[in-house]
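During the second year of the project, the team shifted from modelling isolated chains to modelling whole assemblies. The rationale, set out in the original proposal, was that interfaces cannot be judged from single-chain predictions alone. As a representative example for this report, we include one of the complexes processed in the last quarter. Its constituent sequences, exactly as entered into the pipeline, are reproduced here:
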Amino acid sequence: MNNIYLYTIVGMGLFTLGLYAVIVHAHLLRKILAINVMGSGVFLVLVALAARNQGTAPDPVPHAMVITGIVVAVSATALALALMLRVRAKTGQAELSEESLE
Amino acid sequence: MTLLQLMFDTLLGFSLLWLAWQALTSPDLFRAIVLFIAFGLLMALTWIRLDAPDVAMAEASIGAGLTGALLLSALARLGSKNGSRAILEKKHQAGSMTENTKNQLPFRLLLMVLLLAVAAGLVYVVLTLPENIPGLGILVEENLESSGVSNPVTAVLLNYRGYDTLLELSVLLLTLLGVWSLGDMTKQHESFPGPVLSTLSRLLVPLLIMAAGYLLWVGAHAPGGAFQAGSLLGAAGVLLLLAGWRPGTRLAGLPLRISLVLGVAAFVAAGMVFILLGRQFLEYPPSFAGVLILLIEAAATLSIGITLAALFLGGRPKFSQPKFSRPKLNQPKSSQPKFRRHK
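Output from the structure prediction step:
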């Protein structure tokens, strides 16, 4: 029972870490990594909560949702990377610096 | 629970947090990506600890494997254009970074306080959730017989929540359309694969295809299924691409496109046929739900595998267009170095 709550707390920690990194880092690749870490945190909370009833098999619905989520995350990552390469080709750098917004 | 298990879980949890932190802060991007792949593999171990073998397989092959391959190939393309300039930029960044951190220290402290508040709120919400809620597990188990498969996760994915999976396949297809619309395939065969890679790919690709077939079949009653099998096919495709294979112009036209939409098309067709027979969209009759799910899964596996490999290729492959040439639209005329917003 305890390990369920341990993993949910780790999941929320990952989410918060990822959110911090998304805001702080300027490099787009780093932001993409951070969004993936945030997603992993959300998945961890979902799957951990699916297993919290003792004595019964874990709930398969969150498991299926997380599998869907993993595939959607990899699609989003692929599109984001393609966009990052496009930004790099257009502007010569792979980050959203403050000068380029002025 | 024994003390040993608790120790293992604690160690795993801290390793996850530490690896994520390292991956997000390490100054070298290559190192960051490798750490992120290691993080994905530890996530797979975590799913096993949480009794979710289906998720573990999806995470190990898609979350760690294919995402890692995509990230590394994107990093290579970032660096390949002007390597020396990248190093200069890095030095410049390192210089400006320390300056920025000095200026931004109050901002970062405020951000940390805010995020700690968010984290505390989340922890409070989860820890005060009502206990012993049966959830949907019982409902799934009661109806498992009429779903056509005996693996509850496959039943949810392809029968009860067929809509989700259909839309997910569409998301995958849309992503590929997005990536293709951003540009054509770049030429990246400067480096020839060594003898190890080409031999290894010859040995591994048939094995991966066979394993994908096995996972597809076994998904009906044990952990496995279309996504895990599809990601193995995708991995086989990535391996072939790394070993220097490129789809020929004949193959990259209609055959590629048909295999990409096959999964969505089979799913929609199966759904529509039952509307004509007076049932709901995606409501399968229990007597041949099993066969139908296997057929849809087979089509989806092929599409997922090819889509993932095509995403790795990045950009639309060239194909032969005998009759007309595509008009070139939106060609950038000026070579402005930066996006500038008008004031």
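Residues 8 and 45 of chain A are 5 Å apart (CA to CA). Chain A touches chain B through 80 residues (CB under 8 Å).
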